Amino acid sequence: MEIFNQLESNVRSYCRLFPTVFKTARGAVLEDREGRQYLDFLCGVGTLNYGHNNPQIKHRLLHYLESDGIIHGLDLATVAKEEFLEAFAEIILKPRQLNYKVQFPGPTGTNAVEAALKLARQITGRETVIAFSNGYHGVTLGSLATTAKASHREAAGISTTGVNFMPYDGYLGANIDTTEYLDKVLSDAGSGVSLPAAVIVETIQGAGGVNVASFEWLRSLEKVCRQHNVLLIADDIQVGCGRTGSFFSFEEVGISPDIVTISKSLSGFGLPFSLVLIKPELDQWKPGQHSGTFRGPNLAFVTAKAALDIYWQDDSLSSAVKRKGKIMQSRLEEIAKNYQSAGFSVRGRGMIQGLDCQNGDIAEEIIRQAFAKGLIMETAGAQGQVIRCLPPLTVSEEILDKGLTLLEYTVQEVMQETTSQKLVNLGAAT
Ligand code: PMP
Description:
Helices cover 40% and strands 15% of the residues. It is of the alpha/beta class. The protein folds into 2 domains: 2-54 and 318-429, Aspartate Aminotransferase, domain 1 (Alpha-Beta Complex); 58-311, Type I PLP-dependent aspartate aminotransferase-like (Major domain) (Aspartate Aminotransferase, domain 2, 3-Layer(aba) Sandwich), CATH 3.40.640. A 7-stranded mixed β-sheet has the order 4-12-11-10-7-5-6, with helices on both faces. Strands 1-2-3-15 form a 4-stranded mixed β-sheet. Strands 13-14-17-16 form a 4-stranded antiparallel β-sheet, with helices on one face. Helix 13 (360-373) crosses helix 14 (397-429). The longest helix has 33 residues, at 397-429. The two termini are 43 Å apart. The structure holds 4'-deoxy-4'-aminopyridoxal-5'-phosphate. 4'-deoxy-4'-aminopyridoxal-5'-phosphate is lined by residues 45, 108-110, 113, 136-138, 202, 206-207, 235, 237-238, 263.
């Protein structure tokens, strides 16, 4: 890691957690320079729903490259963009009776969130938005202001403004409906909270600790937004594109967000690509008002269309995700059962599942030891206390089983070590 330590900024992060130099990848398996293989249950934080170097998608990309298709990223009308838009409308929007205009805001998730917030403020003429405890929406100034974790916001060096945080579902305990509080605050001129332009919400908070909002809570949130004439922005960047089983995570909930952000696995190949979906009557941008040089990622258009063609023309992927999600959940629950006294628990939907270890040090130790055994995962949550599993949606049940077994062994080892360490400390203290 010498070159990286010498030359790359101190800000680098994932390479510290997984200190090896990766060289190749296929499906759910990453390989490092020494030829060591790792099962990838992180998948570029959910950017590889169809696996690394998916051969069918790669085939389309290679063909496009060989044909001298447009590569650069200006927002010109190109054949690749036209074909993507057509496929997105025909395969995703129409069958779901969704009517959205598509904005290409720039390549990353935070670009989409910035555009969504800016548009909501512009449409309503209101300055603030409401975001939730443990929410994560990106780290550029606008999106950063809606990201809950203090350590992220402190890095801005200035106060992040224009956002009020409200408690997410479950934040105040299982029996408290926090949308009632939101409703009260928005109804009361004495609450101190001004009427916002929008509410931005993740249906499942990924980075925030795999916190799953109930369908009732999300429906009630939508109702509160409608009652107060506030826009609803669904940030589906992490759990969209099939992660929960349906293409959008809110489909089964039955809500109709005004603005949707998606990214991560949208390109289907790990290429940067994000979208803002806008209800047509809200598409009040003036031409060129939100600009950027890289808003036409043609290679991503090609791979995204390939992914839609291959995986979203029927519901076989969706049902596989639901089936494998249940396997993940029940295996994790078996693990958690053994450490109930330490407070372990499991939560998730579809193929995003989290093992809450209640303790960031333990979770990090599990991640590090799992890596040493050849399994890559990440922690989530305010204290990094949740182990987040995001295998490719296309992973075989055999590899899924292998990864979960590795995780099980690792948890066993770490918990044994933790118990022995506690006994040693106890011995030293007496
Ligand atoms: N929103 C959500 C829900 C996310 O999970 C993320 C990334 N983890 C972002 C926004 C920001 O995306 P990016 O890192 O591509 O800027």
